[in-house]
Amino acid sequence: MKDKQQSGRTSILDIAERAGVSPATVSRVFNSPHIVSDATRNLVMGVAKQSQYRPNASARTLRTRRSRAIGVVLPTLTNPVFAECLQGIAWAAAMANYAIMLQTTGYQLDQEEGAVANLQASGVDGMVLVVSDAAKSKAIQQIQAAGTPYVLVYNRHSKHPCISVAGDDAMLELTHALVRLGHRRITMVCGRLAASDRAQQRYDGFVSAMEQANLTPSALIEVPFIETAIDEISAVLQAGNRPTALVCSNDLIAIRAIRAAKLCGLRVPDDISISGFDGIQLGADMTPALSTVAQPNAEMGQRSVALLVQGLEQENPPAAASSITLPYTLHWGESCGPAPIDVCPSS
Amino acid sequence: MKDKQQSGRTSILDIAERAGVSPATVSRVFNSPHIVSDATRNLVMGVAKQSQYRPNASARTLRTRRSRAIGVVLPTLTNPVFAECLQGIAWAAAMANYAIMLQTTGYQLDQEEGAVANLQASGVDGMVLVVSDAAKSKAIQQIQAAGTPYVLVYNRHSKHPCISVAGDDAMLELTHALVRLGHRRITMVCGRLAASDRAQQRYDGFVSAMEQANLTPSALIEVPFIETAIDEISAVLQAGNRPTALVCSNDLIAIRAIRAAKLCGLRVPDDISISGFDGIQLGADMTPALSTVAQPNAEMGQRSVALLVQGLEQENPPAAASSITLPYTLHWGESCGPAPIDVCPSS
DNA sequence: CTGAAAGCGCTAACAC
DNA sequence: GTGTTAGCGCTTTCAG
Question: pTM of the prediction?
């Protein structure tokens, strides 16, 4: 009598039969409830509930060609900036009733392409991604070739739909502020430029600011993104005529720079000012609290999903024109201060 | 002549036709290449490649009842411990050629159930999750009712397959070490116990250690998981007869406690020792470097996927018996030191 | 407002 | 080694 549901899942046919209606009606109850009479709807709902019926996603996807899944491609979760963003993505996706499929690239270009390929194979409806370099990303080309809707986050490029912050402006503003605090010898510490167009843009802003202030930016320090690199930074801090300020391309690097400085016996910010970029939450809980350019990371994730979903629903994929530039905030923590006066004078 | 592929995706039928073979053969080429003759295999592969053919995942899933997707349920990505774990999950899943679908619960029980329901609806083959309380999780019951294979991470419970670390032992060991350093007034700062069985277990270890040392643990400070709570901690530090050591249930809380201490004018570790738990990577880059019980977070993620996938492949769902306890490491950073001698004597 | 029937793209018996 | 065929569970015209 009740041996029907034992093997496999209950299907729409079972529900139809038990409710004494056609499968089509059951389908309607789930997809367009309002076009079904109250009586039948309640009846079907009841049967479905007590049979613990769950529509089969693959069958639905196969039929409708829409998976309600969106692919997410991120460099790493080891940097909290992306974790925070992903949290925003997850919230927004849940709100919009989409599932998310995650892929991580480790800043590796071949992995980016692989991630995109996997996601295409999984049949996602669209993708949210942060790539190394939007300008020459093969991964993006693949996506476009397949006609999959997509939105970039953090990346900033006029030819793509992007949710981003004006990193160059932000860095320019930050650098100016440092100059106003009396700093003259300012060095930038960057993640590998080749692996991040954001770092490149931030560097540009830094250089502009220095030029406008008639200062020569000292040689850029390029460090790996994922490993620690405290040694490279220490070397610079121990050289003669060391910088009075270190401007870092992201918070993680700044935190390590602070450690490097302290290990060198320098006080932050008394002896040296150090700034970050991103506004990760932990930055505010450290001591000294990190001075940084705060980006609305979770919001950026949410917005990217919102934009993508909107494009999906109205069958009008997000285009470059719908890009959104979000405002940044200069967070003055405690890691930056006036330039020290007792340091050996410049040159 | 070439107007076949313009609408929709190319299917296995197209490839079969173009290659002059049957659809079944094309299927075989993709699923069991070795049972097809070299000649036909190469032929089909060629046609497939140049037609940019990608097997349709939903159709395959519908037919085989296996999605090659695993669901992941995590409390939050705002705590790097879970982000690091997720990174491990992502790696392992990619290695094993599985996709991952992510859901976040914010430590909310109803969200846990919702997440599981969504994942079931998405048709994942199995799930990896960390729940608030393994002992009484309705979410886990749902999973079991549906017969979906699953593995818990961080949670530790004899009735479930778990990848975990002995949090109680670890905390006991840590507390003993603190006692050996001369600390007598040690207070534990915990995330809400109700929201985390890990915190509960760690607390148990703390209490055991204190009892073994014939010390009375001062009242537990319970703080929220996600918000900052620096004020609550400061209050305790400013009270008379303050603790000489703060034992925190996770690194995030420890970092905030360090800030609270410093804001109260206390030096860490000279005036007060503060320890964390989890071993998030950032802890090592801070100054003082965080003293903590390090867990192999990424590895825990990897292992959980490995265990799950193995269970999936051999159609033998992971059981409690296959649980794995991973070793923890006491990381002595710089945030803990000998108890100060100048503090007002106890009672 | 509801039912009948076709088929989305793929795999797995089963024949040859 | 390869081809034929029958669905997996669902949605969606098209009738009524």
Answer: 0.94
